[in-house]
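Lab notebook, bench 4. The sequencing result for the construct came back, and we need a structural model before the next group meeting so we can plan mutations. Quick request posted to the team channel:

Model the 3D structure of this chain.
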Amino acid sequence: MSQNFNENNNNEEKYVYKNVMGTSQNSRAFSVASLILSILSIICSFLPVLGIILGVLAISFAIFSRRNLGYFDGFSLAGLILGIIGAVFSVAALILRNILISLVAGLFS
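Done. Here's the predicted structure in token form:
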């Protein structure tokens, strides 16, 4: 009986270790993807629609990574922060572009 209990306990430990490691690798990929998308969002902020889409995707991947891991790792936290900054820059660029277009159109009418 004692040996059977030890075998079950060892099997459970291996299962938990395998589950945690498998989830960690997938979450790490989403963390890195979040960081890459957030950097692209900042670079493409002068193209407002693309910047907003990339920023929202970066935020979503960071949150998805957080749900899988249970905490924000460095890449997902940086992706979240930079994704928010990229989306805000893109919205600001969109507003600024519309203001400038209306001013220029007002000059020629």
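Residues 16 and 95 are 50 Å apart (CA to CA).
Will bring this to the meeting.
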